[in-house]
């Protein structure tokens, strides 16, 4: 795509002009936006870029390893892997309110990020994968009181606190353009085409109290669901699909044993920008196949349900 090739060259020139001989710190989440920003910055300024990957222990199955392997081993980008799963889980201990979870994770994330960035020698600039829709959404058009549906987890406030200037190379782009730029930069399709994943991670897909045990159950079930979606050739048609582990246990029967285990909800939506969404109309054979696999393969789940709520009135995530 020659347009993206031209955009890429222009973006690299702009980064070099802004940063000069300075150093840049970039938060890497493994999501499309921060991944594309990191690779673009690395092309522009090489090893004056350091990436910090805060591993909250609330990522999807194998996700942390994939991020570290790709950026450190494949791209040779200096990468700090802040493996802080236990700290996040203990901070979340006993918290079941969705907003309290989001705020706890957001605050700890900033603390960890700041400490690790300092350890890595600090920087003059903080890079963020802010997109055009993020820029728009933070503006209030009518000046009236705005309602916070969910506190979004991002690193807002960090640049001022760390006395750094912001670099936002994706500020003019929409999601599909970021994906095109990622392909132009040679990022693997498994990263470029990946469904969005929220900053607070699996914590907001476990209504009620979060624990390592629950996160492990959810990770396994989610991986099976996504694998079946890929096998059915539906991954790219769906905007986002994931499993939610409910804090409800129900009675079941396995062999001739009574079971009393968790309910798992499956969610899949189509959307253009995440602002509105329709639930995805899977055929029943597909849903039955996924349910059977999950119940047979994941200990702790004995019932699977499908969420048929669109947005509005439902949000995409459950919390
Ligand atoms: P909702 O659940 O509000 O989500 O319909 C819309 C889109 O935003 C994602 N999402 C987040 N992304 N930090 C993020 O980076 C967050 O705190 C967050 N909360 C929700 C959600 O996955 C969906 O794609």
Automatic annotation (TrEMBL):
Superkingdom of source: Bacteria
Biochemical pathway: Purine metabolism; GMP biosynthesis; GMP from XMP (L-Gln route): step 1/1
Domain GMPS ATP-PPase: 2-194
EC number, UniProt record: 6.3.5.2
Binding site for ATP: 29-35
Ligase recorded as keyword: yes
GO molecular function, one term: GMP synthase (glutamine-hydrolyzing) activity
Keyword vocabulary terms for this entry: ATP-binding, Glutamine amidotransferase, GMP biosynthesis, Ligase, Nucleotide-binding, Purine biosynthesis
Catalytic activity: XMP + L-glutamine + ATP + H2O = GMP + L-glutamate + AMP + diphosphate + 2 H(+)
Subunit structure: Homodimer.
Function: Catalyzes the synthesis of GMP from XMP.
Protein name: GMP synthase [glutamine-hydrolyzing]
Protein source organism: Hyphobacterium marinum
Residues of the full protein shown: 206 to 524 of 524
């Amino acid at each position: 795509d020659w347009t993206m090739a031209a955009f890429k060259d222009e973006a690299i020139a702009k980064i070099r002009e802004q940063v000069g001989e300075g150093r840049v710190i970039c938060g890497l989440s493994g999501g499309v936006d921060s991944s594309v920003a990191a690779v673009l910055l690395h092309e522009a300024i090489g090893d004056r870029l350091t990436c910090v990957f805060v591993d909250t222990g609330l990522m999807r199955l194998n996700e942390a390893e994939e991020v570290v392997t790709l950026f450190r081993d494949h791209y040779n980008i200096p990468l700090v892997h802040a493996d802080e799963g236990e700290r996040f889980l203990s901070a979340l201990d006993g918290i079941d309110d969705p907003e309290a979870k989001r705020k706890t994770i957001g605050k700890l994330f900033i603390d960890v990020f700041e400490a690790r960035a300092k350890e890595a020698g600090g920087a003059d600039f903080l890079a963020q994968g802010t997109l055009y829709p993020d820029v728009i959404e933070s503006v209030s058009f009518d000046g009236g009181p705005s309602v916070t549906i969910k506190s979004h987890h991002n690193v807002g406030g960090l640049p001022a606190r760390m006395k750094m200037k912001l670099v936002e190379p994706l500020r003019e782009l929409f999601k599909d353009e970021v994906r095109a730029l990622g392909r132009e930069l040679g990022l693997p399709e498994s990263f470029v085409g990946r469904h969005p994943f929220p900053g607070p991670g699996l914590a907001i897909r476990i209504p009620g109290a979060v624990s390592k045990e629950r996160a492990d159950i959810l990770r396994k079930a989610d991986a099976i669901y996504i694998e079946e979606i890929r096998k059915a050739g539906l991954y790219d048609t769906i905007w986002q699909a994931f499993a939610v582990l409910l804090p409800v246990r129900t009675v079941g029967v396995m062999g001739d044993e009574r079971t009393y285990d968790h309910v798992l909800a499956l969610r899949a939506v189509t959307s253009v920008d995440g602002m509105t969404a329709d639930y995805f109309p899977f055929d029943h054979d597909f849903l039955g196949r996924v349910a059977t696999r999950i119940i047979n393969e994941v200990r702790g789940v004995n019932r699977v349900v499908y969420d048929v709520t669109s947005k509005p009135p439902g949000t995409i995530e459950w919390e």
